[in-house]
Amino acid sequence: MIHVLAAVLCALLQESQIPDIGYEVAFEKLKIERCVVIAHPPDGTDRLFVVEQPGRVKWFENKPDAAESFLAVDLTAKVLSTGNEEGLLGMAFHPKFKTNHQVFLQYSTPKLGPKQGDKRKRYPDTRNVVALFEMDPDHKKILPETEKTILEIVQPYENHNGGCLQFGPDGYLYIGLGDGGKANDPHENGQDMMTWLGKFLRIDVDRADPNKAYAVPKDNPFVGKEGALPEIWSFGWRNPWGYHFDRKTGDLWSGDVGQDKWEEINIVRKGGNYGWNIREALHEFKGGPGGPFEEPIVELGHAKPKMTDGANSITGGVMYRGKRLPKLDGLYLYGDFVTGNMYCLKWDGQKAVENKLIIEFPLKQIAIFGEDRDGDVYWSTFTDGRLYRFKLGK
C-alpha cells in the first residue's frame, strides 16, 4: 500500500505526463442498443462487431460515415436479459478465425428457457453459457445451428455475472466471472476454490479433456492441487467488468466493480488472489485469514455529491496502442458507469506513475471499451446508444 500512495504523491508533485484528452462521436449515423462488446474480427477486414445486451450481434464497416449496421445473429429468444447485468455479455473471435470461422459467445439463460415462465421472476437455475458458434465464410452471419456449449456456470443471483471473453496471446480463452451476486458475497465464492464464481478461468478450446468440451492447459496454476478447480487462473474477484489484453505486452488489464467504498483496476496475474471478500481493493472488508493478495494498480474511492472525481461502478478499459493518436500510446483509458468520469493511467511497467481524470462524460453509463483493427479505442454508453472515441484536446 505504501508504494501505491507514494506513486500517487509523486505524480501530484510532477507535471502531468498525460496530454489533454477529449472525445467525439465515432459514427454519427449509428445507434446500438445497450452495447456491451466492441470488437474487430482478425480476418483482414476493417469491420467492427458489437453485442447488444438483449441478445443480438451486429457488424458494420469501420468508417465514420457508416450508415447501417447488419444483424449477424439474434439470440433474444434464448437470452435472459431482464436485469441490468444479465444478457448476451461476451464475444471473442478465435485467433484462427480467418480460417476456422469460430466465434465464442457468453450469455445468461434459464435452463428451461425464457418461455417456460414469467421472465420477471427469478429462475432458480439461471446460468451463464459459454458457447462456440461458426460464421459463414463471408463472416457476415453467425450460424445458430452450429452452437456447441463449452461450459455452463450456475448463477445464484441476477448480478455480478462478469461476462466478457478474451483470447490471450497464448491462444487460450480467458473468462472473467463475478462472485455470483448479491451484497457481501454471501456464499464466500470469491475465496472458494471449488467454484468458478469470482474467478478468471483459462481454457484451451482447441482440445478436449475426457468428459469436457475443452481442455485445461497443463500450466494453469492450480492443476493437480487438491481442493481447487484446474480451470482457475486467478481468484478473489467481485465482478470483473471490462478486461483487455495489451496488444504490445500481453498483460491482461481488468476493472473490478467494488461494493461499499472502493473501485479498482488490476493486472490479472497467474494464480493471483485479488482479495474479495476479505478485502475491497486495498482495504479490509470482511477481514480474516488469507493472502498474500495482489495489490490493485490503482483504486478509486466512491464518488460523493459535489466531488469532482471518484468512481462508483468501474468499467475496465484498454491500453492504447492505436495509430490514430500516437501520443496516447502506452496509456490505459478507462471509465465509470455511474459517474461518467473517464480516467487515463500512465504505467511504467512496474507501477502507476499517474492517474488523471480526463473527461467528465455528461451522459454517464459508460458500458464498455473496445479496439478496432488498428488499435484505436471506442466506448459505448447506454444513454444514447452511440459509440465514442478519444481525441486530443478538450
What features would you describe in this structure?
The protein is mainly beta. The protein has a single domain (2-389), classed as TolB, C-terminal domain (Neuraminidase, 6 Propeller). Helix content is 4%, strand content 38%. The protein is built from two helices and 26 strands. It has helices spanning 2-13, 97-100; strands at 21-25, 35-39, 47-52, 56-61, 70-74, 88-93, 102-110, 126-135, 142-154, 165-167, 173-176, 199-203, 232-235, 240-245, 252-256, 262-267, 279-280, 283-284, 298-301, 314-319, 331-336, 341-347, 352-360, 366-371, 377-381, 387-392. A four-stranded antiparallel β-sheet has the order 1-26-25-24, with no helix packed on it. Strands 2-3-4-5 form a four-stranded antiparallel β-sheet, with no helix packed on it. Strand 10 (165-167) and strand 11 form a beta hairpin. The chain is globular.
Question: What's the assembly state of these chains?
Answer: single chain
Task: Please give the domain count.
Answer: 1
The main β sheet shows up as:
4 strands, antiparallel
Q: End-to-end span in angstroms?
A: 33 Å
Q: Given the helix and strand composition, which structural class is it? A: mainly beta
CATH-defined superfamily: TolB, C-terminal domain
Q: Please state the overall shape, judged from the principal axes of the Cα atoms.
A: globular
CATH architecture: 6 Propeller
Low-confidence stretches: 113-123
- Share of residues in strands: 35-45%
Record the strand order, biggest sheet.
1-26-25-24
Mean pLDDT: 93
- Write the CATH fold name: Neuraminidase
Return the string of H and E elements: HEEEEEEHEEEEEEEEEEEEEEEEEEEE
Cα-atom radius of gyration = 20 Å
As a percent range, the share of helical residues equals: under 10%
Number of helices: 2
The number of E-state strands comes to 26
CATH class bucket? Mainly Beta
